[in-house]
What we know:
The protein is an alpha+beta fold and 478 residues long. Among the domains are: 1-184, Roll (Ubiquitin-like (UB roll)); 363-477, CO dehydrogenase flavoprotein, C-terminal domain (Enolase-like, domain 1, 2-Layer Sandwich), CATH 3.30.390.50. Helices cover 33% and strands 21% of the residues. The chain has 17 helices and 19 strands. The chain has helices at residues 22-29, 93-100, 110-125, 133-140, 150-162, 168-171, 173-182, 200-209, 222-227, 263-270, 275-282, 287-292, 295-300, 308-314, 411-417, 424-437, 448-466; strands at residues 2-6, 9-13, 48-55, 58-65, 78-80, 194-195, 214-216, 236-238, 248-250, 254-258, 318-323, 326-331, 336-338, 341-342, 349-356, 363-369, 380-389, 392-401, 408-409. The strands form five sheets. The chain has a five-stranded mixed β-sheet with strand order 2-1-5-3-4. β3 and β4 form a beta hairpin. The longest helix has 19 residues, at 448-466. Residues 104-110, 145-148 line the site of one FE2/S2 (inorganic) cluster.
Amino acid sequence: MIQFLLNNTPISYQMERPDLTVLDYLREYRYLRGTKEGCASGDCGACTAVLVEQGEHGLEYRNFNSCITFLGSLHGKQLITVEHLKDNDRLHPVQQAMVDQHGSQCGFCTPGFVMSLFSLYKTSQTGQITNHEENIREYLSGNLCRCTGYFPIVRAAEQSLADPGPDQFNNASREVSDILAKIDDLSESEPTNFHAPTGVRELARLRNDRPNARLLAGGTDLALEVTQQHRDLHEIIYLGRVQELRAFNRTETRIEIGAMVTLDRLDIELGDDFPELRALLKRFGSRQIRNLGTVGGNIANASPIADITPVLIAMNATCVLESFEGQREIPLENYFHGYRQTEIRDNEFIRCVNIPVPANNMHLKICKISKRLDDDISAVCLAALINVEDGKTIHIRMAFGGMAAIPKRAIHCEKTLLDQPLEPRVIEQAKAALDRDFQPISDVRASATYRMDVAKNLLDRICLELSGNSPVTRIDQL
Ligand SMILES: Cc1cc2nc3c(=O)[nH]c(=O)nc-3n(C[C@H](O)[C@H](O)[C@H](O)COP(=O)(O)OP(=O)(O)OC[C@H]3O[C@@H](n4cnc5c(N)ncnc54)[C@H](O)[C@@H]3O)c2cc1C
Ligand code: FES
Ligand code: FES
């Protein structure tokens, strides 16, 4: 029996279908139809609702796509829907701002926008976000509007953020925290096909006993099997309550990133030190996706166009796989065997990745090429950890997404650059070496020729940037 707060109502729900989405639950079981369905694939934001969880400094409010989130992952949390924003007869400041600024025409996208604005409003109350257009755009990048246009909606955000004073949710926060704290762990004594272990040992045992159950992290890949491919997932093991998997530890020499660290948290933890990782993460899906999607999910999904895996490979990460029998640690680049074929065994899960802390003189260069700047999957993604001293490349590890059936290192290219001066002749040879490293495919995102041309141009770009007097080469810096 899962337990959560639906707005102010405590819910206990016996999971009959472990793959029931939050959106279907809201619309079909609770008749809360303010939350809309557009694409059912996490792209349009019409289904946006807000998840509330206890964080370090109080309740945290995160917008998410209810169409690709399974209901069971709400256990122990509060779910806020658009029906709950009004305080008696008074609109919430974000709703009032949408009215004042004429932020809605047909209205289909409006509840989703309102919920994203609401999570922005609540986050700005914590001081983590300022009334800056960049923040506003980033929060709205996962919501599509086809008729109003974005200016009125951005103005509505600015209006509501001008003075994000306390609302009814601040008044109720202590009570909500108390209710959430009292929700027990899911009991394994009841027969269920939705499991939510709280520790790695319990997870390892479940994984061992139930090899056919699917592991669920943020669900931003897994749920598409249900909503797009119409598959049934008969048994799910949810990883979100396993504390050890949420660990983020840093020593002088090593960064340990738990598999359940979300992409948003990755940005918070590492973004200051690695600005190009931050820039990549800002373009990783949308805020809704980054709020739930995880590092472990990005690796385990084994997509050749995943964005985090090339970065981790370039940083020489290792991957810790755990089972009931113990742990083994392998270089991440060896995790991928072939298209969607990986090293992981049926009874294992990814516990964490470890990255050696790069020396201060290393540059982490990352370039993502996609058809759209925001909320789009890469055609090609390049990541390189590189050190150039006195004009000579003395360290380089370079990996690409989108260039092969797996995220893969550019070994020949690396060899061509290593210990050589970073000058046009060598760069041309390194570009030619990419032809030996990769035979990219053509698909809906890009042709093979385009991919190879882009990869070579990206190599040019990072060499130009490393030369020290580069012009602006990034579209998001123009
Ligand atoms: C709209 C949209 C935009 C997206 N944009 C991007 C993008 O820009 N870049 C990008 O790289 N990806 C993108 N994605 C894909 C997805 O968000 C990422 O791959 C994300 O990191 C997946 O993490 P998750 O926690 O949601 O994984 P889940 O969906 O929960 O899991 C994915 C797979 O990994 C397995 N798994 C999860 N955790 C573990 C573990 N610890 N051990 C073993 N197996 C595990 C699951 O069983 C499942 O098979 C996008 C997806 C959507 C829907
Ligand atoms: S319905 Fe489009 S993102 Fe959920
Ligand atoms: S108001 Fe019509 S889609 Fe946005």
